[in-house]
Input
Amino acid sequence: MLAFFSPFLTQLQERLNKLGVCLSHGRRDTLLKLLGGHFADKVVERIKSGRVFRGTGDNWDLKVFRGHMRKDVQNEDLHLFASNLIENRLTFSHLPNVHPKGDVAESVNQNGTPKYFREKFNRRNATPAKVLDSFEGSEELFLSVGRAYIVTAALSFLGMASVEEDPWEMFGGNLFWDQTEENKKKYFDDAFGEFINEYLLQKNFSTNGEEEDYVTNYVLCCIFLAILILQLKDTAAEADGERNLINQKLLLSVFKSMGAYSKYALEMFVSIAQIECMLTPRLSEEFKWGFFDNWRGGAGNNIEDDMAQD
Output
């Protein structure tokens, strides 16, 4: 290895070659050509015959340590790139290869998407290229779209054509107002639970053997994420440790489903385990209720600890 990467050890390699330890300096290049000299020709031949290859590659980092370091002889870092060509076992030449399966640009600009509303209402404080550059504007736009979808879902659930109508049918008409306050509250809680199960938790979701309605899926996803963000913001404002623990359990599954954010799923798991199992009762409560701070005083004016640090 040292002889391969250092021109100063050529003589050593030749001496070792005479002892039968390694190849000669010139013979090595000849042997490499014999082993792989026709590789490119074979690849071209296979491609012309209709075969398809895929390429793989990875970094190969080496560090060469010198036995006796001098000013002109130092340790050396080698950053190489190893590549490979693999011939596909399956052929898909019978499939068209002209246009993409879906028009991504068209779907992004369709009615109902945040980008569509951004252009329609000229919300220039929300940049689609990089959300972090205008986080507040992008969050405000998304929550506006999410609230609109929630209202639309509520109208559909209550059988109403517009917000001006009264949901009499859903609440039993005039019979509702003749009930006791306890029955009214129970009926409202039951109806609200059905709405949550259908539009947020999607417990009753079924395609019934038909093709999936991707527009409906998109809207339900927007409703879920909008309610999640509103829940997080309200939990922080109220400094509610119990709700924050519920949020962490929900975020655990959300982050786990997103590969790029799996490290946050681990953080949620550690926090939940500490609160519910690993800490003493006193430390558990201190930890659960210690995620927020209030600098201004008053109800609903709390902020997250990391925001306070920033």
Summary: The chain is about 50% helix and 10% strand. Residues 1-5 have pLDDT under 50 and may be disordered. The first strand starts at residue 53 and ends at 64. The longest helix spans residues 214-238.
